[in-house]
Design a protein that fits this description.
With about 300 residues, the chain is an alpha+beta fold. Strand 1, helix 6 and strand 2 form a beta-alpha-beta unit.
């Protein structure tokens, strides 16, 4: 029985794309928590050792190898910083955050070049602007998302990623150009619709539609180098984000599980890039949000 579960676990790791998404988005649900299959492997290992089953131990080599192939690279040592590196911070600050000034200071303490924020509500926005002004003289805000920068920003505009069926005001996308010392970069900040885990499966239709709209916008971006920072409400393994992950590079090192703060289960706060590399991603200390901030190092060409 342990050997059979080991083979099944290996099959889910290797062939997770084959799990259908038609009913309840089961494929996306599996992919959201795919790295956690390591816990299944460890549990099976314990059972195999208790039973002293050689067959089970041999079978466990299959899921162990599959997991290592998929995720082992994220655990490798991080390369040294280079002269063209850009440090960015991504954070959903929460519209219920009671300490926006403290949150802004905590993010600034990481000394990034760029800070992308989501869930900016009108009462808190002036506090973020005032607190970050000294170190980040350039910023652009559209709707509830914004970008603060040490480098000049130009051509800021609202990005329409609103899915159908939302009647109320909904502005969660921003595109601007960051004029870095190493060239212009198109920066996208986005907050995709939330998903919910229900008895019927994963409710992610609006998130998937918004991801598709965002992917089309990035595909049409004339600048070669693009970075995307956002609360995408999905992991990079989730096929619902395929319109983005098929066009952009994701972090090469680091897990950076960002949600929920109390017990992070998944990284739904993402940093992606086109024509450049996201060398490493990590979490920062908790703020007044239900998300952890993530910081990433981007190696520019």
């Amino acid at each position: 029985m342990v050997a059979a579960f080991a083979v099944l676990t290996a099959g889910l790791l290797v062939f997770h794309r084959a799990v259908p998404n038609a009913a309840g988005r089961l494929g996306s649900l599996l992919e959201t928590f795919l790295p956690w299959l390591a816990m299944v492997v460890l549990t099976l290992l314990g059972l195999a050792l208790l039973r002293r089953s050689v067959t089970a131990l041999v079978a466990l080599l299959l899921p162990a190898a599959a997991w290592t192939y998929l995720f082992g690279g994220l655990l490798l040592p991080v390369a040294k910083s280079g002269p063209h590196d850009l440090v960015v911070v991504q954070h959903n600050v929460s519209d219920e955050n009671t300490d926006p000034a403290g949150t802004a200071r905590a993010l600034s303490d990481a000394e990034p070049d760029l800070i992308a924020l989501q869930e900016l509500v009108p009462p808190a926005l002036p506090i973020y602007e005032k607190t970050l002004a000294a170190d980040y003289p350039y910023h652009a805000v559209r709707g509830t998302v914004g970008l603060w920068s040490k480098h000049p920003l130009t051509d800021a505009r609202l990005l329409d990623i609103k899915p159908q069926g939302i009647a109320e005001p909904w502005s969660r996308g921003l595109r601007t150009v960051v004029k870095t010392p190493h060239g212009d970069i198109a920066a996208y900040v986005a907050h995709l619709p939330s998903v919910r885990v229900r008895a019927s499966g994963l409710a992610s239709f609006r998130r998937d539609e918004s991801a598709s709209l965002l992917g089309k916008a990035i595909a049409a971006e004339p600048l070669k180098t693009v970075i995307l920072l956002g609360d995408l409400n999905g992991t990079v393994e989730d096929r619902g984000l395929a319109p983005l992950t098929s066009r952009m590079n994701v972090a090469e090192r680091g897990f950076a599980l960002s949600f929920p703060t109390a017990f992070p289960l998944a990284r739904i706060d993402q940093v992606m890039a086109r024509s450049t590399t996201v060398a490493h991603i990590r979490t920062l200390p908790a703020t007044g949000s239900d998300h952890l901030p993530v910081a990433a190092r981007i190696t520019l060409p």
